[in-house]
Amino acid sequence: MPRLSLYAVSLATGLVLLSGCGLLDGADEKSSTSGTPSAPAAPTDADAVPATPSGSDPAQPAPAGGFESPQAAVQALIDAWNKGDKQAALKAAGPNTVEKVFAGVVNVDAKIEGCQKGSESGVSYAWDCYYRYDGGSSHFYVDPYPATKWRVVNFTQVAD
Asked: Which terminus of the chain has fewer CB atoms gathered within 10 Å of its CB, N or C?
């Protein structure tokens, strides 16, 4: 029996030492102390910070004072899309949304027709700004964002 107790104490001591070194932290990625950052399972633009190239000024994510309305943020994204300027688009939207928008065909005639409160249009975002075109519509979902007042956090196209 004493040999079994010694084995159990040795095993417990080893596990405590390993966990203290951060070698057993893989089970809880959020509390990792190993110094290795973990990627979220499903990134969202609601929490994302706009990417900025090295040498650029991350303190200037949008026009001075930010976007005055959800529609202004969406129109800035559309203007950047029409110009093929992803860096300008990142001032109005997060990187995931920019990639979604830029994956679509550019519509140089795109002008926002309106913005509805998300609760009125049945979406979980603060605002649903949209424009219609022959065969469907494009929806830009906008939420409040402290750094720029408003930010486009998602994009979808709906066929008629």
From this structure: N
CA gap 141, 69 in Å, rounded: 13
Q: Phi and psi dihedrals of 53, rounded to 5?
A: -65, 155
Question: pLDDT tens digit string along 49-92?
Answer: 333 333 333 333 456 779 999 999 999 999 999 999 999 999 99
Where residue 149 falls (left for φ over 0; alpha for ψ -120 to 50; beta otherwise) is: left
Dihedral sign computed on CA atoms, order 138, 117, 66, 40: negative
Within a 10 A sphere around the Cβ of 117, how many other Cβ atoms?
12
Helix, strand, or coil here: 70?
Answer: helix
Strand runs (DSSP E) across the chain, as ranges?
Answer: 114-117, 127-133, 136-145, 149-159
- SS (HEC) of 13-27: HHHHHHHHCCCCHHH
DSSP SS3 for 154: strand
Total-model pTM? 0.61
CB atoms within 10 A of CB 110: 18
